[in-house]
Amino acid sequence: MKPWHERVTDALAKDAPRTLYHATTSRKLARCVATGAILPPVRGFDTLAGAQEWARLTNGRSVILRIEVEHPQALPDHHNAHGLAWWSPVACKTWERIQ
């Protein structure tokens, strides 16, 4: 597998992913439901496996959402062996619970 910095460089040469996987907690999800949106910055991974690994490393994030984002940009950090991290400055108003 390529080192993460090479994967980021390769990803930036292509169109950014519109579908991301967002790891969160039940409490934060309840707040998103109450407000009607995941407020920016909206962060996520380009793969489900990347979000699952992030959730495993950050205790308590047991909820994984599939989200569609606008204007995604690569994060300079948070990448892992399973996926690249991205963020969007636009609120996300729809999601699908995956896990």
Please provide a written account of the structure.
29% of the residues lie in helices and 25% in strands. The chain is α+β, with helices and mostly antiparallel strands. The longest helix is centred in the first third of the chain and has 10 residues, at 26-35. It is globular and about 40 Å long. It starts with a helix and ends with a strand. The mean pLDDT is 89.
Percentage of helical residues? 25-40%
Low-confidence stretches: none
What sequence of helices (H) and strands (E) makes up the elements? HEHEHEEEE
| Arithmetic mean pLDDT | 89
Across the major sheet, the strand order is 1-3-6
What shape does the CA trace take?
A: globular
**What structural category characterises the helix and strand content?**
alpha+beta
The percent range for strand residues is 25-35%
What's the number of helices?
Answer: 3
The major β-sheet equals: 3 strands, antiparallel
| Count of DSSP strands | 6
What would you report as the Rg, rounded to the nearest angstrom?
13 Å
Distance between the termini: 26 Å
Explain briefly what this protein structure is:
Helix content is 29%, strand content 25%. The chain is α+β, with helices and mostly antiparallel strands.
What features would you highlight for this structure?
3-stranded antiparallel beta sheet, 6 strands, globular, alpha+beta, 99 residues
SSE topology sketch:
Layout: H1 4-12, E1 19-24, H2 26-35, E2 42-45, H3 48-57, E3 63-68, E4 73-74, E5 85-88, E6 95-97
Antiparallel strand pairs: 1-3, 2-5, 3-6, 4-5
